[in-house]
Amino acid sequence: MFYVFFPPICRLLGRGKLLVALLLVFVVLGPFGRTVFARGNEIWQECSYLGGMDAIALGCLTAIVLSRTRFPPSVLRMAGAFGTALLIFSLCFSIRADAWGLGRSGVDMTIVAIGTCMVIAAAADTRWRSPRVMLPLQLLGRRSYEVYLTHMFVVFALFRLFVAAGSPLPGVPILFLMVVLIAGLLGDWVARLYSEPMNRG
Predict the structure, then answer these.
(1) pLDDT of 109-168, one tens digit each?
(2) Is the pLDDT score of 201 beyond 80?
(3) What is the 3-state secondary structure (H, E, C) of 150-176?
(4) Fewer CB atoms near the end CB (10 Å): N or C, the chain?
(5) What is the pTM of this model?
(6) Would you tell me the crossing angle of helices 2-13 and 49-68 to the nearest 10 degrees?
(7) Orientation of helix 108-126 relative to helix 73-92, angle to 10°
(8) Are 9 and 22 in contact (CB under 8 A)?
(9) Are 150 and 190 in contact (CB under 8 A)?
């Protein structure tokens, strides 16, 4: 749905008000796609077309705004700080967020997307360069799409081993780290052997 229909629609509408209006509709409908339209189906809550379009739409809106507007450094610093705070809250205090009903209303992932867009806007407009200690995350980010497409193979395989070992609670951090490491290596392998040769072709 995304690859076949969304790019031609964006091309047809241009970068004007019609495209912005369509993107705003997707932002509004995203939480409904994860709640009302999913009808309690956990797979559709996570993977439905509409349920993920608010994040894509917010990313597109961020790109449009940044291409048209130069923000003062103070505004960018505030956006980066607030976006980081939203991400920390959403990712590190998810139980509290769920208690506030953010998950039930479907806006939890919208908040993650908004926080991410604010950080991206601040980093892109200030040309911020991360410290070298962040290099592993940078490398993972460069292969993020290949990791996204293939990571569930790693998750399923390692989780099956984890369950076969009796699901030891102390092993959860090890499981998490192993999934990230192996999924990253698999994504890099797919990129080197498939994506990059296809891009060059």
Answers:
(1) 999 999 999 999 998 877 777 788 888 888 888 899 999 999 999 999 999 999 999 989
(2) no
(3) HHHHHHHHHHHHHHHCCCCHHHHHHHH
(4) C
(5) 0.76
(6) 40
(7) 150
(8) yes
(9) yes
Convert the pLDDT of each residue in 1-14 to its tens digit.
777 888 888 888 88
* Encoded amino acid at 94, one letter: S
Chain length of the chain:
201
**The residue to which tokens 């970068």 are assigned:** 15
27 touches 58 (CB < 8 A): yes
In the chain, the amino acid numbered 139 is L
Token representation of residue 69? 């507007």
Name the one residue in this structure whose structure tokens are 């019609």: 18
| Percent of all residues in the chain with a pLDDT value above 70, rounded to a whole number | 100
Residue with tokens 């700080």: 81
